[in-house]
Amino acid sequence: MRILLWHVHGAWTTAFVHGEHDYVVPVLPDRGPDGVGIARTYDWPERRVTELSPEALRDEHFDVVVLQRPHELEQLAEGWLGRTPGRDIPAIYVEHNAPQGRIAEMRHPAGDRDDLVLVHVTHFNAVFWDAGTTPTRVIEHGIVDPGDRYTGELARAAVVINEARRRARVTGTDLLERFTRAGPVDLFGIDAGSIGGIEDLPQDRLHSEMARRRVYVHPIRWTSLGLSLLEAMHLGMPVVALGTTEVHEAVPPAAGVVSTRVDALVAAMRRLVEDRDEAAERGRVARAVALERYGLARFLDDWDELLAEVGAR
């Protein structure tokens, strides 16, 4: 199939374009949010992904368009393609985020539409978003396996947060000081340098640096399920995570410690930083669980099934 999608979330898109399809991503001269084009810090398969300008899209055939943001559905797809998603071209809307606001107001922008399929990346999101009568599926994350790289040679914790200063309480940035009482913490991510962390690294180097740390700490309060957490588990890292949203589904007790008690998490981090053998054993469990539930093959199989269904409409 030939699939049009915007490059919105680097890690998710990286997994998605590893399928056996032809993928087209819009590109703009400034490579801004609506035209990022082919990834430059992620490893995408050669010959599978093509960049096209908005002007070129009108003359192209696509079997399916995958939408991920409200303005793609409401403006970009129709404006750039000259075709209405769901009516003139089969459409899927992928919702990556947990909803914001009061429960009664968590209405999805693709709600009550019978001309597309809404895909959530976690069961938590599917429960919290109100999509009305729109056909809805859950396709859990899949990760391109970075390999079992864990060494834990550094008695430090790794944390990955993008835009840690701006997102603040959402990402648990304010909790990091409490974790530093249990041992050194290295923060990675976009704009991490603004608060003394390590600026955005290419994915492969980031994975290698994470795996040198003894434990992965996930302090995020409100997200669907951080892909950095799943990447850490694939690397073979033990996990200490705030028990919110979908985290308790992803991290079994043998793989680390999940709790809403920050003092319990700080104590767990201290113990794992000091006990390299326990950290390594929990990391082995984490990797095994991640490969089974969040492996790339399962992810792509789930997507192939849905794409065939939607494309046949």
Short characterization:
The protein is built from twelve helices and twelve strands. The two termini are 14 Å apart. It is of the alpha/beta class and 313 residues long.
The shape, in one word, is: globular
The major sheet is characterized as: 7 strands, parallel
Count of β-strands: 12
Strand ordering within the main sheet: 3-2-1-4-5-6-7
Q: What is the helix tally? A: 12
Percent helix range = 25-40%
Regions with pLDDT < 50 over 5+ consecutive residues? Answer: none
> What is the H/E order?
EHEEHEHEEHEEHHEHEHEHEHHH
From the structure provided, what is the oligomeric state, counting identical versus distinct chains?
single chain
Number of domains: 2
Distance between the termini: 14 Å
The helix/strand class is: alpha/beta
Radius of gyration: 20 Å
Strand residues, percent? 15-25%
Q: Could you report the average pLDDT, rounded to the nearest whole number?
A: 95
Question: What report would you give on this structure?
Answer:
It contains twelve helices and twelve strands. Strand 6, helix 4 (123-128) and strand 7 form a beta-alpha-beta unit. With 313 residues, it is of the alpha/beta class. A seven-stranded parallel beta sheet has the order 3-2-1-4-5-6-7. A five-stranded parallel beta sheet has the order 9-8-10-11-12, sandwiched between helices. Helix 8 packs across helix 11 (276-293). The protein has two domains: 2-142 and 296-311; 154-293, Glycogen Phosphorylase B (Rossmann fold, 3-Layer(aba) Sandwich). The protein has helices at residues 10-16, 54-57, 70-81, 123-128, 164-167, 176-179, 203-212, 227-235, 247-250, 262-274, 276-293, 296-311, and strands at residues 2-5, 22-26, 49-52, 64-67, 91-95, 117-120, 136-138, 154-160, 185-188, 213-218, 239-242, 256-259.
